[in-house]
Specification:
By secondary structure, the chain is of the alpha+beta class. The chain has a domain of 64 residues. Helix content is 36%, strand content 22%. The chain is built from 8 helices and 8 strands; from the N terminus they run H-H-H-E-E-H-H-E-H-E-E-H-E-H-E-E. The chain has an 8-stranded mixed sheet, sandwiched between helices. Helix 2 packs parallel to helix 6. The relative contact order is 0.11.
């Protein structure tokens, strides 16, 4: 038997052994899923160094048949953050509308609809430098995962799709002129059931670490002077007062001042000053 035949025989036996162990293939997929959720990998369930037939030999399911997960990044043991997707608009709008009645977080005085915010939302989720991030409960850990790896993969996919959004944040243009591209306004909104739990600080800190990679040098927050909780939060994060605009908002019952807070960021999300 020549070397070529020997190689072909060895490869065939190896492929058969791999194909016979469906649980092994599912375990690999499960690990890839969990890694992509925790560490922000691209979420693709394929292995570029190996042909797809290696994992589909003798089985109808291939490694590429599992849908990709959106990249997700760990905030802590409880929460993860990811870029908003088109289907997240209703939840984003619902959280925003919760903030209106209190007249502390936004100058919007009446609830908005998904239709009214659709263009704004589409612009953000399609922008490489002005994203919207959403926060969800993290998927189960590997220790909590089912011993059945097929169920593990399904649980990861289902959890990421169905876990409710508890907060969101965005970077927006500070001013619609090209030279302002290095500066942005940050906005943070929390679901009413998850306020005063440190989530706002957690999300804002993480967004500051992302800013330099988006070409952002300066992050600005425009906050009502009567919104003491938010002023205190941004003060703890190292923001400084860059401006003060007295009596600029008619809040339908009182006139509000607006404070401009700013922070210059580096690759570590810390102040340059």
């Amino acid at each position: 038997m020549d070397n070529t035949c020997i190689k072909r025989t060895c490869i065939k036996r190896f492929v058969s052994a791999m194909a016979a162990s469906q649980k092994t293939r599912l375990l690999i997929c499960a690990i890839a899923a969990l890694l992509s959720v925790d560490d922000g990998l691209d979420g693709e369930y394929y292995f570029p160094k190996y042909p797809v037939s290696l994992f589909s030999y003798g089985h109808s399911m291939t490694a590429t048949s599992l849908p990709a997960l959106a990249p997700s990044y760990r905030l802590n043991d409880v929460w993860s953050v990811q870029h908003a997707r088109a289907e997240d608009l209703p939840e984003v709008v619902a959280i925003y509308n919760q903030s209106i009645a209190g007249k502390q977080a936004t100058a919007q005085l009446t609830p908005v609809t998904c239709e009214e915010r659709a263009a704004w939302f589409a612009e953000h989720i399609n922008s490489p430098t002005r994203p919207i991030y959403v926060v969800r409960a993290r998927v189960q850990s590997m220790e909590q995962a089912s011993e059945d790896t097929a169920q593990t993969v399904q649980a990861v996919q289902t959890n990421q799709k169905t876990a409710p959004i508890v907060a969101w944040g965005s970077f927006s243009d500070l001013y619609a002129r090209m030279a302002y591209h290095i500066s942005t306004e940050v906005s943070i909104y929390l679901h009413q059931d998850y306020q005063a739990k440190g989530l706002g600080s957690l999300l804002t800190r993480w967004m500051l670490t992302q800013a330099p990679s988006l070409g952002i040098h300066n992050v600005v927050a425009l906050i009502f002077a009567h919104n003491q909780p938010s002023l205190g939060l941004f003060d703890k994060l190292g923001f400084e007062q860059w401006g003060y605009m007295p009596e600029v908002c008619d809040m339908d019952g009182f006139i509000a001042d607006v404070v401009m807070l700013g922070k210059a960021v580096t690759s570590e999300g810390t102040s340059n000053k």
